[in-house]
Description:
Blueprint: H1 6-34, E1 36-37, H2 47-53, H3 64-81, E2 86-91, H4 94-105, E3 111-116, H5 119-130, E4 134-139, H6 148-157, E5 162-166, E6 168-169, E7 174-175, H7 179-187, E8 191-195, E9 212-216, E10 227-232, H8 234-242, H9 255-264, H10 273-289, H11 291-312, E11 328-332, H12 337-348, E12 350-351, E13 353-354, E14 363-367, H13 375-389
Parallel strand pairs: 1-12, 3-4, 3-5, 5-8, 8-9
Antiparallel strand pairs: 2-10, 6-7, 9-10, 11-14, 13-14
Helix pairs in contact: 2-10, 3-10, 6-7, 10-11, 11-13, 12-13
Amino acid sequence: MLLMSPEVTNLSRNIRNVKEAMSRSMDKLSEDERLLMMTPGPTEIPPTVKKAMSQPMENPNIQSEFYDFYHSLEDKLQKVYGTEDDIIILSGEGILGLEASVASLVDEGDKVLCISNGVFGDGFADFVKMYGGEPVICDFPYDKPLNKERIDKILEQEDFKVATMVHCETPTGTLNYLDGILESLKQAGVITVVDAVSSLGGVPIPMENIDICIGGSQKCLSSPPGLAILSVSEDAWNSIQEKEGKDQHFYTSLKVWKDNWFEKERFPYTPSVSNLYALDEAVDLISREGKEYGYIRHEETSNLCRKRAKQIGFDFFPETEELCSPTVTALEVEGQAKRIQKELKEKYDILLATGLGDLREDIIRVGHMGFNAKEKNVKKTMDALEDVVR
């Protein structure tokens, strides 16, 4: 029998403890990888996007190769948007795009028409106040559509510099049909700002009369959180350049991008390089599939989700099914949202989102956007949801 010294015994024990800890970590990692994240952003990220993010780092302030890469990404994003307007990619989550748009356009005392039927529509008005503007809120119930006739009457009564609105209200799964409203605003000479964070890449956007359109990397594009994407029209640039008040901000200023990147081809600050690599691959995936085919895929998976929801007995939060977004479905659960969310995660390794604010206990949301917009994912989710609620 080999007798070991206390030092050897302690070393052996330490090695065994480390191995057990590593095993527990690997088990936890496997559990995390099994988690099906069917939330309306962040979404699951495709393997090739993860791989792209780990590319060797380039210095964006020195290497000309990075400038070429960035210009190429701008061109690709123009195709996703369906526009020839300038593209800006801000280093920050989608909300940064909303704030930067308001901060860059709104002067002290400017009247801004904030059209809203949801949380993010309301949030625009908060930004307007923050930057000294005067928000005129044209609000509608969260479960109902925007009313063009009412908006037209307000336009007849008052003059506005800017109007804000949301294409897809993610917290309630409501898709707003903006074509006619945007046309009225453009005829009135109003600069239009549209939050399309949870629709860009999954739903056609009526770009013709939009001056600033805001997207986010972590929604239908299925890239990691951390980038806000904006298309900026010539009219928007003119308004930004003509703004009289002195800017008291930098990181939320679009003017610094005009003055530096578009005029002198230098970045105003260091871009988020790895996130840009990931976004580039995510946009390539959209291109390889074909943008129109992607819209069809989102429509088909959302149809399946709503069909199953009706069979189970759910009511949709939006007033009519026609208002339901192809990217997220919001279901009424009357005080049961947290319980359902918890049981789905514990029993089936599926993560859904609840509502926000006053609706956090009354809405459960299924995100079927981007990489998650697959029939097998929706079927698995709805099978589990049916079991939990019954």
